[in-house]
Amino acid sequence: MPTQPDSVSIAFICAMPMELRPLARRLSLRASRTGAGSVYTGTLGGRAVLATVTGMGTSLAAAGTRRLLDAVAVGHVVVVGITGAVDDSTPIGTVIRPELVVDGATGAEHVPAPLGEDARHGTLWTTDELITDSGVLAGLRSRGVVALDMETAAVAGVCESLGIGWSVVRVISDRATDGTVTEEVFRLSNQDGTPNFAAVARYVLAHPGRIRLLARLASGARLATQTAAEAAISACAVERS
């Protein structure tokens, strides 16, 4: 496995392997090794870039980001991946470029750097909790929250502590309002973002009528990960030009 150079212009940080794969395909990234472990490296517009997976949730995101930034000199971090809408109207596949990211546990606010030409809008709410309660969601909407995720505020906190600029490009893959993502469905993935095949098998056996639901969620995730990769790459390319 090739060894990664000591510095890169851009580090794409994903929570799950399925978020990284479209980036790796689009940029022809190759597996490499750093002091932080395995990453994928390549170039974008003549600049060295890498992509890595931290795992799901704020703790893994913070720890993975810290390991990477301690091992590699990174010019700018871009968080890339999927996110859940907090309303019934935002279409699956919508790109979310928030103007503010809030840590739901601490209330800490983080302002992402502009990237590319797309205007930033709304607030992204980072939480380790699965939020589906209609009253809680209505309260978040009233505060300008447009989507939920589990990692961005944690990544932002690490970057800011080290004086490294960061941005975020996420895409709607599902809706917290429609009952599709329950605690049981959420547990179909391991914390490292890989599928929990044993849990999937148990779920299908217990709920054979929900196979279409799983297929719909998978379709939304595929669209969102592909769109997020394209949007992030395009934004970084525009930033360079």
Write a structural description.
The chain has helices at residues 17-27, 58-71, 134-142, 152-161, 183-186, 197-206, 211-240, and strands spanning 7-14, 30-34, 37-44, 47-53, 73-85, 95-96, 100-103, 109-110, 123-126, 145-149, 165-175. The chain is an alpha/beta fold. Strands 1, 2, 3, 4, 5, 6, 7, 8, 9, 10 and 11 form an 11-stranded mixed beta sheet that branches. The protein is globular and about 50 Å long. The model has no long low-confidence stretch (mean pLDDT 91).
List keywords for this structure.
241 residues; 11 strands; Rossmann fold; eleven-stranded mixed β-sheet; alpha/beta; globular; 7 helices
The biggest beta sheet is recorded as:
11 strands, mixed
Overall 3D geometry? globular
- Average pLDDT over all residues: 91
Q: How many DSSP-defined strands? A: 11
CATH class reads: Alpha Beta
How does the SSE layout of this entry go?
Layout: E1 7-14, H1 17-27, E2 30-34, E3 37-44, E4 47-53, H2 58-71, E5 73-85, E6 95-96, E7 100-103, E8 109-110, E9 123-126, H3 134-142, E10 145-149, H4 152-161, E11 165-175, H5 183-186, H6 197-206, H7 211-240
Parallel strand pairs: 1-4, 1-5, 5-11, 7-9, 9-10
Antiparallel strand pairs: 2-3, 3-4, 5-10, 6-11, 7-8
Helix pairs in contact: 1-7, 2-4
